[in-house]
Amino acid sequence: MRSCILSIGSELLEGSVVDTNSAFIGSSLSHYGTAPDMIRMVKDNKEEIISLFKSLSKEFDVILTTGGLGPTFDDITAECLACACGVDVTLNEKAYKHMKERLERAGVLLNKEHEHQYMLPCGCNLYYNEKGTALGFSMHLNKADIICMPGVPVEMKTMFLNEVLPVLKEKFSLKEITYKDLHFLSIPESYIDTAIRNLQISSDTECIINAGSGKVIVKLRGHNHQEIDGISKVLVSAFKENYLGDNIADEAKLIVDLLNGKKQTVSFAESCTGGLLSEYITNISGASAVFMGSVVSYDNSVKQNVLNVPKDILKEYGAVSAECASFMANGVKDLMKTDYSVSVTGIAGPFGATDTKPVGLVYIGTACKNGTSVYKNIFNGDRQQVRMRSAKKALFYLLNIIKDN
Questions:
Q1: What distance in Å separates the CA atoms of residue 261 and residue 93, rounded to the nearest whole number?
Q2: pLDDT tens, 240-287?
Q3: Distance between CA atoms of 263 and 14, rounded to whole angstroms?
Q4: DSSP letter at 328?
Q5: Which of 231, 305, 337, 379 could, after both became Cys, cross-link 360 (CB 3.0–4.6 A)?
Q6: Residue among 96, 144, 88, 152 nearest 121 (CA)
Q7: What ranges in 31-76 are assigned the alpha helix state H?
Q8: Cβ neighbour number for residue 230 with a 10 Å cutoff
Q9: pTM exceeding 0.85
Q10: Host H or E run for residue 121
């Protein structure tokens, strides 16, 4: 199945709205081994949209559009599709009834401006909208089925999964593939690239490397489960010190879920990350049951007076040191009475470096009932990247000690 995604809306091109719909559709189709062949954004221009419908329908089996189904003057997808197919737009009774019921339920009166939304291409197929007022619709043009969905993400996602995807699966005999994502932290992608090249992976298995935010994700796709399993074992074994897990959406969520399962708690002592580590955890639903709090000990007086880092330690080794990180981790663990604690202290830059302590030097400490560990890291990047990579690496160390205990 050759498919194209057409994201319609001038707001997408000016950057005021981010196109998350295409990413969702692409990810969903990839699970069936048929990622989109093209993704394109187009402004609300009638001539351009009609031209694209006519030309792309000669090349693709399916064109999936998002946006332009609303009641306002710039919602022109239905009109454009009708024109491209050589039919009129007519009052669609099912679309009218659906909209009327939805609006009445919300206490909104149906008025003349809403008429635009239920004027659909004559003879189109309809797709139910569980979350909104605009039904989806489709027409066949040249070799393509052109399927139009709302631009509101929650509406589009529900319609795609419940209405559109089942149709595509049946028509094109789509079968779900083996789908595995291996997550690695703080490792150059070139190391993993070399290891993968040495494996001589068959053409039946697709392998993609994504790098960013201090993490490398190896995406394995295909119907050969045995080969994918073998590749996974080799890579995990080769880089076990950097391996986070497979098919995980977020290491912070994994930590929260593990702690909730064990009925255990954690606390943080942050310096150079300035609360970023805490933000990652508190973004996760359920964190309130396991995360007791954090001390953002940016100034040495807070390290000394709140976290009980000895004055002599700060004077002899400095705030950016393994010794300070160790006392910080134990200090916050005792203060918050938690099962685990993590400390972060370093030089995020661009100032503050010395000959022996460069920008990017970060010490991360962990403490639990089995003892205290401190890890020295040197992160590349600007100030924000160093802070982000420090917080991500701290989550990695925390995840490991939770698993080990």
A1: 51
A2: 888 888 877 688 999 999 999 999 999 999 999 999 999 999 999 999
A3: 47
A4: H
A5: 379
A6: 88
A7: 46-56
A8: 14
A9: no
A10: strand 119-121
Alpha-carbon distance of 182 to 300, in angstroms, equals: 39
Residue 188: CA atoms inside 13 Å, Cβ hemisphere, count?
A: 5
- In which residue are the tokens 């300070």 written? 324
With the C-alpha atoms ordered 224, 230, 234, 240, is the resulting torsion angle positive or negative?
A: positive
Instruction: Report d(CA 20, CA 266) in Å as an integer.
Output: 33
Centroid of chain to Cα 188: 21
| Burial status of residue 359 (CB atoms within 10 A of its CB: 0-12, 13-18, 19 or more) | buried
CA distance 207 to 312: 53
User: What phi and psi values does residue 343 have, to the nearest 5 degrees?
Assistant: -125, 150
Summarised one tens digit per residue, pLDDT across range 193-211 is 999 999 989 998 999 999 8
Q: Cα(129)–Cα(108) distance, rounded to whole angstroms?
A: 18
- Given a contact cutoff of 8 angstroms between Cβ atoms, the answer to whether 368 and 337 are in contact is no
Cα-trace Rg, the chain: 27
* CA neighbor of 350 nearest in space, from 272, 269, 275: 272
End-to-end C-alpha distance for the chain, whole angstroms: 48
Question: Rounded distance, CA 184 to CA 169, Å?
Answer: 33
